[in-house]
Amino acid sequence: MYRNLARIAVAVVITLTATSAAAQQKEHEGKKGEKHDMAGMMQHEKSPWKEMDVFHATLGTSFHPVEKGDFAPLKANAESLAAKARSWNTSTAPAACATPAMKESVAWLATNSAALAAKVKSGAADSELKAAITAIHDRFEVAEKGCAEPHDMKGMKH
Q1: Which of 44, 62, 76, 86 is surrounded by the fewest CB atoms within 10 Å?
Q2: In the chain, what's the furthest Cα-to-Cα distance?
Q3: Coil, strand, or helix at residue 149?
């Protein structure tokens, strides 16, 4: 009886391990066409500027669905994005980010995020909203690079 229980336990462990490995392989195969941008991944971690990170979180949940044709999150978050951009614009930049170019970029983002919120409120066409959020996203990425802290790559898994 104990021998049968041991065999069953071993069979269960082997089955679970094989299933997990197969699932991971299938997930990885589905991503073969995707590029791994390690520099971009590191860039999108935390910055030394809290308000920048708060804006970035809302920008990400608004912009990336638009890339897939889903405008609902953008429309739901537009006012919040504008408010977070205003807050970021009025906050004090950390020393690593305190440059005239950064100040100008953050002001631009605040102005254009408010304009985007107004477009959403007025019922602008999705194509117009996509152009606006894409410009905001692109400008943010430039600003973000100007305010990045170096990150330790130890322990990162690929």
Answers
A1: 76
A2: 77
A3: coil
Token code pair at residue 132: 């606006």
Provide φ and ψ at 125, rounded to 5°.
-65, 150
What's the whole-model pTM score? 0.67
Say whether pLDDT at 30 is over 70.
Answer: no
Q: Could you please state the CATH topology (level 3) that the domain comprising 38-145 is classified under.
A: Four Helix Bundle (Hemerythrin (Met), subunit A) (1.20.120)
In terms of C-beta density within 10 A (0-12 exposed, 13-18 middle, 19 or more buried), how is residue 54 classed? middle
Distances 87 to 20, 114, 119, 124, 150 between C-alpha atoms, Å:
45, 12, 20, 25, 25
Nearest to 147 by CA among 56, 52, 40, 60: 52
pLDDT at 35 over 80: no
Q: Where do the structural domains in the chain lie, given as residue ranges?
A: 38-145
